[in-house]
Write a structure and sequence with these properties.
By secondary structure, the protein is of the alpha+beta class. It folds into 4 domains: 51-160, Thrombin, subunit H, CATH 2.40.10; 174-272, Trypsin-like serine proteases (Thrombin, subunit H), CATH 2.40.10; 279-371, Pdz3 Domain (Roll), CATH 2.30.42.10; 389-483, Pdz3 Domain (Roll), CATH 2.30.42.10. The radius of gyration is 33 Å and the shape is elongated.
């Protein structure tokens, strides 16, 4: 069998031997260079002294161990022989045992005077935080750490130990990282101090549904429990990420907080012991294909402004409902998630330039973001009674809102047209509109009567074949794009 296989290979190669010789001649003059073997030894040697082990202790609520005499409760002869059951029972009940839980993670030093970065979930709720530096004698390099500040929303924390002249790492720029670049992870997976693993950047901008500001780097460098809080380094030895999460039931999928976000958060914690985030005072939604068409946009991108709260930075700067935010300080905004992250990174009181799409054109607006947490105000008025209005292009009937409608549907004061019926096969139904929804504006123009609705719908049908409705539904407001049926 072996001889036959060798013969078959030779037979297949023989007719192509001339072509093979020609190819060998062509490539012999310019051989393809072999890929260099990656060597991380110098990088690991330089970075490891600044990577630490973080351990914590938490006192947990004492738990009862139960009573061995529960078995005798209710026995007919119990009290006859031993007296009142409760007295006997209480004598046999063991005292609850206090418990102390322990956790283990990683961190890295960012200054020679002992500031250390780790994850919030590593130290959250801890009574005692201990930092172990590298070295043969761990007891000589063990410090009790102070939690300077933490930010649960990005899962970052800053620690401080009483030490000087420490080796430290610097932050790099994660924004210029390319997918496919080499990265190195250092930490204490499963309690194994200073474990070094290497891989590449597998993806950027990952949303793993862990919080409002998800923007993770994904890497195939091996990351396990205990790596949390450790650095992800580029080939220059700079921290481009903080290892934070792993994908359950998966191999080679780890996630790190990018340094472009972490450096700002850590700076706030170091200087103010808290994080200050920007605030515009708007509600937003994503732009889909139908919405883009209705607004005259080439692509479905940006964040559509649903509401602008009075007295907030967006309102004061002139941003309007129906504007699509396309950029913040020249950083492009593709969706609502990107806008949330971009605004959060704005410093309250600073100047920010917002690019919006309005009336089929881009305009730039300068505003001063407030600090997130400012109160919101609400306003509005009621409408008058009128007969239902119908519009065949939308496939619905609506009439002005009354005070009775506000009470019946548990709504705040508002104006507009209440939808009283929806054609099951009409454009409104396809778009998801419901009986009880209130149309407050059509193509950014307020509507309070059948004439207003007819005028705006007819205009939209001629211009773009789609219309943008501003909807109020049980106190929630949003925009809905409806593609119009021109045949009706």
């Amino acid at each position: 069998m072996i001889k036959r296989e060798v013969y078959m290979i030779k037979r297949c190669l023989f007719p192509a031997s001339a072509a093979l010789l020609l190819l060998l001649a062509l490539f012999s003059a310019s051989p393809v260079p072999a890929a260099p073997a990656a060597d991380f030894s110098d990088l690991a040697k330089a970075a490891m002294p600044a990577v630490v082990n973080v351990s914590t202790e938490r006192a947990e609520e004492a738990r009862s161990m139960g009573n061995p005499f529960d078995f005798f409760r209710g026995h007919p002869d119990m009290e006859r022989f031993f007296g009142p059951f409760e007295d006997f029972y209480n004598r046999g009940a063991p005292s609850p045992r206090p418990r102390t839980s322990h956790s283990l993670g990683s961190g890295f030093i960012i200054s020679s005077d002992g500031y250390i970065v780790t994850n919030n979930h590593v130290v959250e709720g801890a009574d005692v935080v201990t930092v172990h530096l590298g070295g043969k004698n761990k007891e000589d390099n063990k410090y009790t750490a102070e939690i300077v500040g933490s930010d649960p929303e990005t899962d970052l924390a800053l620690l401080k130990i009483n030490a000087t002249e420490l080796p430290f790492l610097k932050f790099g720029d994660s924004q210029i990282l390319e997918v496919g670049e080499w990265v190195l992870a250092i930490g204490s997976p499963l309690g194994l101090d200073h474990t070094v693993t290497a891989g590449i950047v597998s993806a950027k901008g990952r949303n793993i549904q862990s919080g409002s500001y998800d923007d993770f780097l994904q890497t195939d460098a091996s990351i396990n429990r205990g790596n949390s809080g450790g650095p992800l380094l580029n080939m220059n030895g700079e921290v481009v990420g903080i290892n934070t999460a792993i994908a359950q039931r998966a191999q080679g999928i780890g996630f790190a907080i990018p340094s472009s976000m972490a450096e700002r958060i850590i700076g706030d914690l170091r200087n103010h012991k808290k994080v200050s985030r920007g605030w515009l005072g708007v509600t937003i939604q994503n732009v889909d294909g139908a919405m883009a068409k209705a607004l005259g946009m080439k692509d479905a991108k940006g964040a559509l402004v649903n509401t602008v709260h009075p007295g907030q930075p967006a309102a004061e700067a002139g941003i309007k409902e129906g504007d699509v935010i396309l950029a913040v300080n020249n950083d492009k905004i593709e969706n609502t998630e990107q806008l949330l992250r971009a605004v959060a990174l704005l410093s309250p009181g600073s100047k920010a330039q917002i690019t919006v799409w309005r009336d089929a054109a881009e305009i730039k607006i300068t505003l001063t973001p407030a600090e997130r947490g400012s109160g919101l105000s609400a306003s509005g008025v009621t409408g008058d009674k009128s007969s239902p209005a119908g519009d065949n292009l939308l496939g619905l009937k609506a009439r002005p809102v009354t005070r009775e409608d506000l009470r019946r549907f548990n709504l705040n004061d508002t104006t507009g047209l209440l939808i009283v019926s929806v054609d099951d096969k009409g454009p409104a139904a396809v778009a998801g509109l419901q009986i009880g929804d209130i149309i407050t504006a059509v193509n950014m123009h307020p509507v309070n009567s059948a004439a207003d609705l007819d005028t705006e719908i007819t205009k939209a049908a001629k211009q773009r074949g789609a219309v943008v409705l501003h909807i109020s539904r049980q106190g929630r407001v949003f925009f809905k794009a409806v593609e119009l049926d021109k045949k009706k």
